[in-house]
Amino acid sequence: MSPSLALALVPLFLTGPISGPTTPVITPTVVTQTFEEPADADDPAIWANPRNTERSVVLGTLKEGGLAAFDLNGRTIGVYPAPQPPTPDAKPGRYNNVDVLGNLAFVSDRGRDRVRVFQVDERGAKDVTNPATKPVFSKTEQEVDDQHNVYGLAAGHVNGKDVVVTSRRNETTIALLQVTKDNDTKKVSTLDLPSTFTLPNGKQWTVCGEPGEGPQVEGMVIDERTNTLYAAQEDVGIWRIPLRANGFGKPQLVDKVRSWGAPQKYNPETEECEADGPDPGFGGQWLEADAEGLTIADGVLLASSQGDSRFVAYRKADMRPLEDFKIKDVEHSDGADIVLGKLNLLVVHDGERPNGTGFAFIRF
Question: Where is the BPP domain (predicted)?
């Protein structure tokens, strides 16, 4: 663990032991308001104000509720609605994931299959998306309504280019987009991750899912120091993928969810995957599916183990697990973001409150 992150995390673990059978529990500094349907909190991103750290802004997607902006006290300073449906029969906008690059925020609009662009300052955010922006994956507006659209999202600076990586809902595909000067993005490459794997015993294992749906990626983060994408395929694990400004390198599966390799079958009555034989034990030890939000601080990768409401810290260089922890009253977290330095802030999605969802802030 890097010295700066280690020092930053020390206060977080004072409520529990660093090692042993008990998972440390962190108490949030503040929490945001609770959002109720149709708003549904999902993914946060931090804009660190370069002139006045205390006037920094946290953004959070609210799905059909749009995009929210918060000050560092967790107060809502703005909510920016998702687009209305273009026709009465079409799907409305639905903001799924967000990431910040400089003074711009990029948002995956799952409802309309677009990447939307927002200008961010201490007052909040303003939608500056090019009105002519096109769907990322869908060939027609009619195909957009099938909802195999943009889903997870990460932004970064790679080989001199500002880029966005976005995944496709219910598919294994991820796409690399370059940011253009007119507040738009241009797709330059795609990569299909596997849905079938060869197990150590030589058998083939296919990830269980609803017919016609593949194991999707949502949580992603770009490591700008090494030009690497980390991508969490929800029912598989964490991939490390070399990234260029115009394409992807060979993906490597660097940690697996515990259920990886376990035989399952889809039950159409319950619409759930159920065990279909003994678990051969080929999965990982740290992640309970879904593998979700990823964020990087110095040499450490933080991952959300959504299935048991934990977070896991890995040493990024070799993906050695360093520590796991929980955040008090935070359940089934999707996205997370962390900034170290003058700000020292971790923000996570809180996926299960009595009346809705929200976000939790931890300052240290």
Answer: 16-364
